Amino acid sequence: MIDIHCHILWGVDDGPQLPEETEELLNLAKAEGLTDIIATSHYSPYLEQVYEEKFEEAASVARSVGINLYSGCEYKLQDALLLKDRLITLAGSDFILVEITSGVLGDFVYNQVYDLELAGYQVILAHPERSFTPADLPKLRKLGDMGVYFQITAGSIAGKFGKQIQRFAFKLLEEGLCHFIASDAHNPHSRAFFSSEAKSILQKKELTPQAINLLFHENASKVLSGEPSIRSFSLKRSQPSSRKLFSKRGRRLS
Ligand SMILES: [Fe+2]
Asked: What is the pLDDT of residue 189?
């Protein structure tokens, strides 16, 4: 499994504060069956300043545990727009991880996302099941039509954020508004990976091995290699489907 959203660098955000905590998280990841992790700490001017050093320190611990670590960042939409000429993309690809704060999904959001797409980025929306409610579904569908990808948190599927969020996560899966399942892990206790727990819940919901592989591995592997052929999976459909997406210059590919 590949994790595209994980707060693994220590001392830069609300993730681990000490190298020992990072090491504990990495050992947990290994036990969960994760092989590759993208380090997506919350953006701050401080993070930007120390990113290289902090990343290299954590990557060295990851190597000793047997996990490949890649650079990345989690941006609030407003920050991503302000910094769009120098964003830390996921594993050096065109993909960026963006969170949109609850309650600000107004019509201006479409223009802002489009601005990022025109700048050459492919936008992955972090944890929509935790930021929004079922009332926002039409807007989320519109973002999906614009080429935005969706990352659902494994802990949400596993019920760690409550029944309401778990139900909405399943609803997004039904709608085909899920391309990645990632951990958003912050610490080894309350905010760990829960990847294998989420996987077994989805197996009980009769997702095929092919669908599970798509959400936990295949699409993420395309982020690592910078391939633009991300696919969605809908619980309503029996097969994953390809979808249109914006190319580097904002044109649509087939
Ligand atoms: Fe996060």
From this structure: 85
Å from CA of 42 to ligand 1 middle: 7
Question: 41 C-alpha to center of ligand 1: Å?
Answer: 7
Q: Which structural domains are found in the chain, ordered by start?
A: 2-242 (3.20.20.140)
Which strands sit side by side in the sheet containing 180-182, from one edge to the other?
A: 74-76, 95-99, 122-126, 149-153, 180-182
**Is the pLDDT score of 249 beyond 50?**
no
Q: Look at residue 43 and give its three-state secondary structure.
A: coil
Q: How much distance in Å is there from the Cα of 106 to the middle of ligand 1?
A: 22
Q: What is the pLDDT of residue 45?
A: 97
The identity of residue 68, as a single letter, is: N
- 53: how many CB neighbours lie within 10 A of its CB? 10
Question: Which amino acid makes up residue 54?
Answer: K
Q: How remote is the CA of residue 158 from the centroid of ligand 1, in Å?
A: 17
| For the chain, percent of residues with pLDDT exceeding 90 | 82
Q: What is the pLDDT of residues 115-124, one digit of tens each?
A: 999 999 999 9
